[in-house]
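call fold(seq) -> tokens
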Amino acid sequence: MLSRRGLLKTLSAFVLAALSAGAYAVGIEPRGRPRVVTHRMTPPGWPQGLVLRLVLVSDIHACDPYMPASRIAEIAHQANGLGGDMILLLGDFLSGMRLGSPVPPEAWGEALRPLRAPLGVHAILGNHDWLDDPQAMESGRPVTVQAVLDRLGVPLYNNRAVRLEKDGHAFWLAGLADQLFPAAGLDDLAGTLASVTDAAPVILMAHEPDIFPAVPARVAVTLSGHTHGGQIRLFGYSPVVPSRFGSRYAYGHIVEDGRHLVVSGGLGTSILPVRLGSPPEITVVELG
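ret:
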């Protein structure tokens, strides 16, 4: 039986541990240099001789003091150094934070300007690129992020697909409009894939992974963000995931019925500036 002194020591230890974990989750893990997580795969029917290295930058959530322009510039430099054939920006550039101050679009745009890759930099929108842009929600057009990407010369994929080539091999890069906003979302998977005119493999960018059950085997791999790995991930489990499928598509490389999905843990935070067990990451996908 614990003595009063022993009980107080035990309670003090629990309180200290909780405070330490909280301090780490707010002040250290979310602000560290992003780790690089690599997933390697050869999807069914992938052309022999086509090797692609994709660098995924997702969920920046530009917000002072947690994700200032200076940190975004460091992330851009790190992404450039990973040797990707393409850099894919998977949405949620805007803040989504209840605490802190949004970084001006001009500032985070300039921080991303150095991004370079042999086959280009390509982007889709996330839910916060609508939700945190009153002009976009009112007009039904992605006003703020579209303007920044236009200045950078980065194409925005809203339900479209583009045919690209590497080493004489063709492939398609497709991107969906956001599935959540405005209203019930603008995504059109069937219409997007209808623009694919040959048998070359398709790489699909979709901010929210919830579309994955509807993605046909025709798509070689679906690339998503949005979940932040749950933002809090303990022993491989995330108690809260912004998905109607719970933790099924929370994080990582998922294979269902021979179809491949990669969900990046992303870089920033939304709602609250907390990450625990889900550190910021730049995700690399190697195909072939």
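The CA atoms of residues 105 and 256 lie 38 Å apart.
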